[in-house]
Structure prediction request, 612 residues.
Amino acid sequence: MKRRTLLRRIVIYGSALLLAIFWFGPFVLVAIGSVIPEANLFTFPPNWFADPPFLGNYKYIFTGEIPQTYLQRGAMRSMVSEEVRWIPYSVFNSFVVATAVMFIVLVLGSLASYAYARMRFPGRKGTFLFVLLSRLIPTVALAVPYYTIVQSLGLLNTRWALIGMYTALTLPFAVLVLTLYFKSIPREIDEAARVEGATPLQNLWYVTLPLSLPSLVGAGLFTFMLAYSEFLLALLVTNTRIARTLPVTLGTISTNPDVSWGLLMASIMIGSIPTILLIYPVWRFMVRGLTAGAGR
Amino acid sequence: MRSQTTATEGRVETKATRPPERRRRAVKSSGLLLVAPAVLLVAAFTLYPFASALYTSTQLSSPILEEKFVGLQNYRDVIISSYFLDAVKTTSLFTAVAVPVLIVLGVLVALLLNEPFFGNAFLRAGMLLPWAIPASAAGVIWQWVFLDDSGALNASLYSLGVTNDYIPWLTTPSLARMAVVVVFIWTQLPLVSILLLAALQAIANDLYDAAAVDGASTFSRFRHITLPGIRPMLVIVTVYEVLMALTTFDLVYSLTGGGPGTATTLLTYFIWSETFTQLSFGQGAALAVIIALVSLVAIFIILRALPEDALVGEDR
Prediction:
């Protein structure tokens, strides 16, 4: 018996360790890569830790001051790509778009979800299925028409275009999560308020929403993540540096063969900051929301 | 418009007593009013564009040439093109390998995370990172790992003495394909494990207790309690991941750029390059319609696999 539990623990800790290496290893490598001078990265045999860590890459992104190591070796100078200096601004762009999408989705989503969860009206089942299934049309099938529409509206290279498209693409998931969650709240609470004379909107605002905080945070953050990361549509409708979102700027830099890897690594580190900050709340609230929805 | 008036009346009237028939009607239309913004927005961003794609797919359409109706010509051209068949083959292979591996790993990881061990909470929270960072960033990160001349993986393998030369991961077709699968799994495994973990935790503990009393083995407990318990979630996750695999784009774009050659040109990447680098909008739209039809088949499978009332719920 004792031997079995020991074996069990070895298996558990062993696989947990492997998993941790698989998941976090690449991030560690990126973090290391961002503080090693370019010349040391590309030597054979590897000679990564010859010099102390240097922060020149980060400094260049924020201030434009070209790191000493790049100046010393003349050939390396072309590898300083000016694109990376747009990274902080792209993070800002992505952040603004994602935040706007999150709020719109939460407002429209909770209105619709309340009706789906609590009210009877013609077309209830039909429109619900339509909203959910709409998301199964692959984005790429909509990409060409989106491009034409956005272009004809004169909204190319604007945040408005992105906000509109992302709202439509993320609403279905929010409606699903919120409807399932609203349904899990006992109907009696709702009915009591109705007997007191509350309108559906008052009921939603004063009774249902305060009780649904976990699912609201969960759906909101999930929406934020999707909008923050979306690539295909953003690539199509934004092609100026100032309009680009983070994924597009990263994509552009990475397809530039002359790019300095150190700078690219530093860009990824900077671009990941908002995501890292949101990890804890996502874990805490989203998984609860999903569990509540899935179980019942 | 009519529904709006009724809704306002309904609101005013709530405080007064009124005949039940009228009240029900007011509530009915206000429900429609509440869902209207969401439904209309989704419709505007799916139905119209899709209809527009259907139209474009029957036109000889590009930014430089004049539009002309060509019927199903685009579809024929696309389907007989060897590049298309190549992309279909690559995509099917990718999906057939990546999704089963992903689901099996997902179940294993969910089972692992369901056990108490030191560092469990850290792993649970931290694993969201690969899922949450933009997939295009994931592509870049792994490009750095796999880089041919001096990537991190090559450098590590060399330092550990496993190899004495650099392995060209991303320029060897079979290795590049494997790399795309690995990165896809890296980004998707967190979500799959979490959803399956949520399903695992919803299984009542007394079932396991009863099975333990009956002396059931670990394996038969998994087979007869765990598996049926997570089955609905397994179906949903599998279908979702099939759709994800069929439409993978970002990570191919930033990891391999579809190469070497066309070894990792998945359908979505193919459609994108056909449309926006070759600028043949008509053929791109035809391709898009084809991939949408493939997804419709997947929708049909979901609907058949799920119980009747799984989505909307029982009280209707």
